[in-house]
Design brief:
Shape: rod-shaped
Strand content: 5-15%
Helix content: over 70%
Oligomer: single chain
Order of helices and strands: EEH
Largest sheet: 2 strands, antiparallel
Structural class: mainly alpha
Radius of gyration: 46 Å
Length: about 120
């Protein structure tokens, strides 16, 4: 059982055959050693950048939320202003309709009076 081979999948995706006589530490390529030494630093930098980007994204989201809240408040104020102006127009319309009713009644009275006067003239 001393003569067996082990296939090891490397990080780069290639397979490496290792015989039972070989020691795994002796067969590691220099690139893998460099990669292992760089990896923690790269991970630390990468994690730091990810954290920084994440914090920037959170701050940007908070900024957008604050802007949306400001817009919502502005929208509410504008709606209230429109309600006030609408109430003024409704009031003015009601007054105008009342004047029209009054003038219409006055016009009817004048027409009746003119009719009575014409009838009296013809009598």
């Amino acid at each position: 059982m001393e003569d067996y081979e082990i296939n090891i999948l490397r990080r780069d995706g290639n397979w490496k055959k290792v015989k039972s006589k070989d020691l795994l530490l002796d067969t590691i390529d220099q690139n893998e050693v460099e990669y292992n030494h760089i990896e923690p630093e790269a991970k630390v930098l990468s994690e730091h950048l990810k954290e920084e980007n994440f914090l920037n994204d959170i701050n940007e989201v908070n900024s957008i939320i604050a802007k949306l809240e400001k817009l919502e408040n502005d929208k509410t104020l504008l709606k209230n202003q429109l309600k006030i102006i609408e109430a003024k127009f409704q009031s003015k319309k009601h007054q105008t309709e009342e004047k029209i009713k009054t003038m219409s009644k006055e016009s009817e009275m004048l027409d009746k009076t003119i009719t009575v006067i014409k009838n009296l003239k013809n009598f």
